[in-house]
Design a protein that fits this description.
Layout: H1 6-14, H2 22-25, H3 31-43, E1 46-48, E2 61-65, E3 70-73, E4 83-90, H4 99-124, H5 126-140, E5 147-150, E6 153-156, H6 177-182, H7 191-205, H8 222-235, H9 249-269, E7 274-279, E8 284-289, H10 301-308, H11 314-319, H12 328-332, H13 345-361, E9 365-371, H14 374-382, E10 396-402, H15 404-412, H16 418-441, E11 463-466, H17 473-478, E12 482-492, E13 495-507, H18 515-542, H19 553-560
Parallel strand pairs: 7-11
Antiparallel strand pairs: 1-4, 2-3, 2-4, 5-6, 7-8, 9-10, 9-13, 11-12, 12-13
Helix pairs in contact: 1-3, 3-4, 4-7, 5-7, 7-9, 8-9, 10-13, 13-18, 16-19
């Protein structure tokens, strides 16, 4: 890397070899750092390895924090113990005139902006601050992983260095920053902590709790937040009010957040389809809207071919644009499966359709999950029972279908025995997701018996994830590199139950998914949702119990436990075990 151009070197490091979108990767830079990067590129600055030029120890340098954030340092800046210096920066004609002065001005402006949040919060009073903290303490217990920055301060629920409630930090831990703030007088808060509480509160107010993830990997400051909210309002077909109409710059953040939330609800009510893109290495998630609605035209022909075997009239209707399928003839027909290896016709149909979703999108594995006993769940919900919130993971199933090509690759590599292990592990993780979302889906999150229960808000938006094998532990273990998730709820006991079912697709290698494939997944997910919904209504109306008994560890071992074709008996004595099979 000696004497390489500095600007591209920093961008390459920040984007992890072009795997991250530049606006996210560079969004972690502070204003002075961004100015330094612009100056480096304008001047054609080059780099030199620190070991080859020890005199650069106190000069301009750049490096990377353990968490991945790139830092660009001026002379005299150290960057802290977590920073690994990558290279020094050489200026061909010396550092540009006024560079340090401008960087110092930007740093002072940044500090003043962050301090403005603290002053605004002090004016609002300790009770207002305490209410914001209480809300954040609750929300952080039930949302996904985040890591974001305010200046040099990092706020995250990831890893051993986490300071927000998460797997390694409990809600009452002294490491939990929100717990500490709840016990600290407002006058003793740092400006960074005040900025985090204010900006995160406004951000979450602008939409769903998942907004926490939209700044992950980047700086959360008033200027960046205001620009984000302006952009969301525009995306929701609105217009942001003039800044001069607001009482204060910080108060305007909450005004923009309220407007964004209202406009977002209206846009969704109009039928707009929302989705998210996920950059797993920064856990950053961006919300988008399709310009055109998802219709039957998005359904792959391979899926329609399989569907036609169960509902002959469906393909013509779907090719015409509709996503509605008349499932009643199928559901009212013979409940026995047409081929061995399945406990019922429904389980057979579900397995075949889920497999067709993989074939139609070039996926390695496809899956769909749900509760094993839909009627029991519906009955308990109608009674207002909190019991579903206490169900174990064994109360859920996940239909996982590995594509033929995926199985062949493992077999050719001499790892055929890993097929059932991978499938069982995926199914176990997805059953756990059903358990994780149920308190929210059942609307029992406020019950005292669930106060210490680990649950997440049920997902509501389809998303498309890339390079997830670089972050998610389960995805790392099972080689899930790129993924699509289409969550959907159904009506049970007269109310919508979000996130009860989903359709997921994954690739262990190859290209990232495209928007065309995401649209296909959403369309196929809507068809599956219709099947789940019609079956649930039928069971409710007739008070029929139809438990899904397939898709257990033993079932997967039996189906995929040998190198012979699907459905062949596994070798005698084979035992299947998967973590969390017996519940949580």
């Amino acid at each position: 890397m000696a004497h390489a151009t500095a600007g591209p070197a920093v961008r390459h490091l920040a984007t992890i070899g072009e795997r991250l979108a530049p606006e996210v990767a560079l969004g972690a830079l502070r204003p002075a750092e961004r100015h330094l990067l612009d100056a480096m590129e304008a001047a054609g600055a080059t780099v030199t390895l620190p070991a080859a030029d020890p005199d650069h120890a106190g000069g301009y340098r750049f490096g990377q924090l353990k968490a991945g954030k790139v830092c660009i340092l001026r002379p005299g800046e150290t960057g802290g113990p977590e920073l690994r210096i990558v290279a020094g920066i050489d200026w061909p004609a010396g550092a540009p005139e006024g560079l340090d002065t401008e960087c110092a001005r930007l740093a002072a402006h940044e500090a003043a902006e962050i301090e403005t949040c603290r002053r605004w919060l002090v004016d609002k009073g300790g009770e207002h601050a305490a209410n914001l903290v209480d809300r954040l303490r609750f929300l952080f217990r039930h949302v996904g992983p985040i890591r974001l920055y305010i200046g040099d301060s990092c706020y995250t629920n990831l890893g051993r260095e986490g300071n927000l409630v998460g797997k390694s930090v409990g809600p009452e831990s002294d490491r939990c920053r929100m717990k500490v703030l709840s016990e600290t007088p407002l006058g003793q808060w740092s400006a960074e902590d005040a900025c985090f509480v204010v900006c995160m509160s406004a951000l979450i107010s602008s939409g769903t709790p998942s907004r926490t993830e939209e700044f992950s990997g980047t700086q959360l400051t008033p200027t960046r937040l205001a620009a984000f909210l302006d952009g969301r309002i525009l995306a929701y077909d609105g217009k942001a009010p003039d800044a001069a109409e607001s009482a204060s710059p910080i108060g305007r953040l909450f005004e923009l957040a309220d407007l964004a939330r209202e406009l977002r609800a209206r846009k969704l009510e109009s039928g707009a389809v929302v989705y998210r893109t996920v950059q797993s290495m920064t856990i950053n998630k961006k919300e988008h809207f399709f310009a055109n609605p998802v219709t039957g035209a998005d359904v792959p022909e391979k899926f329609l071919e399989t569907l036609s075997g169960f509902v002959p009239s469906a393909p013509e209707t779907i090719r015409g644009g509709a996503l509605d399928v008349d499932w009643q003839p199928l559901l009212d027909g013979d409940p026995r499966p047409s081929q061995p290896g399945f406990g019922s016709r429904f389980e057979e149909v579900l397995h075949q359709l889920v497999g067709a979703a993989a074939a139609g999108t070039g996926s390695d594995v496809s899956m769909s999950r749900g509760p094993r006993d839909t009627l029991r769940l519906s009955t308990l919900l109608a009674e207002g029972s909190v019991e579903p919130g206490h169900w174990k993971t064994s109360e859920y199933y996940c239909c996982v279908v590995p594509a033929e090509g995926f199985r062949r690759r493992l077999t050719d590599a001499g790892a055929a025995a890993e097929v059932p292990q991978v499938v069982r592990a995926i199914a176990a993780r997805m059953r756990w997701n059903g358990w994780h979302f149920m308190p929210h889906a059942a609307a029992v999150t406020d019950d005292e018996s669930l106060a210490e229960r680990d649950w997440f808000f049920a997902p509501s938006m389809p998303d498309m994830t890339e390079w997830t094998s670089h972050h998610h532990q389960g995805h790392v273990a099972n080689g899930v590199r790129h993924a699509i998730r289409v969550p959907f709820g159904i009506t049970l006991a007269g109310a919508h139950r979000p996130g009860v079912h989903d359709l997921r697709l994954m690739r262990s290698e190859g290209d990232v998914y495209t928007l065309r494939e995401l649209r296909a997944a959403i369309a196929m997910g809507e068809i599956l949702r219709g099947l789940y919904q019609e079956r649930a209504l039928r069971l409710e109306k007739r008070a029929e119990t139809a438990v899904v008994d397939d898709f257990t560890n033993a079932w997967y071992q039996h189906r995929y436990g040998t190198q012979t074709p699907e459905g062949t008996q596994a070798p005698e004595g084979t035992q299947a075990t998967t973590a969390k099979e017996n519940g949580v």
